[in-house]
Amino acid sequence: MASINRVVLVGNLTRDPELRQTPNGKSVCTLGLAVNDRYKNEMGEWVERPNYFDIVVWGAQAESCSRYLSKGRPVAVDGRLSYRSWEAQDGSKRSKVEVVASTVQFLGSGSGAREGAGAPVAAGAPSGLEPDTSDFDAPARDSDDDIPF
Known about the structure:
By secondary structure, the chain is mainly beta. It has a domain at 7-38 and 45-115: CATH 2.40.50.140. The chain is built from one helix and six strands. A five-stranded mixed β-barrel has the order 1-3-4-6-5. The longest helix has 10 residues, at 59-68. The chain is globular, with a radius of gyration of 18 Å.
């Protein structure tokens, strides 16, 4: 039987990205992501509850995330789940499930970009280049009232 390990999350960063280098020089960036979940309580009222995820981004995408993202910025993450276990310094066993990102899509205005630069739309975009949106004709909206879902 085949297995599928794929995760798509859209939420807001809970902290500034942390960029590190592996001993062989590869960039790795960790992000904290909050994604709201909605449910009805016993009284029939909608209640929002945040879920928190640790995201790991590798390579050039990691460097872009570190450079352009900051706490509170909305992002979309496409990736896979990864389980890690280790022994802590006190001898106790520890484990966690993380999302290893394949792509990180930057959402929102980009006003939180670091280093004073405008943020690219996708973390995988080459430095200094932004996607060409000249052929994209999005309908103008006055409010969110006309969203069909």
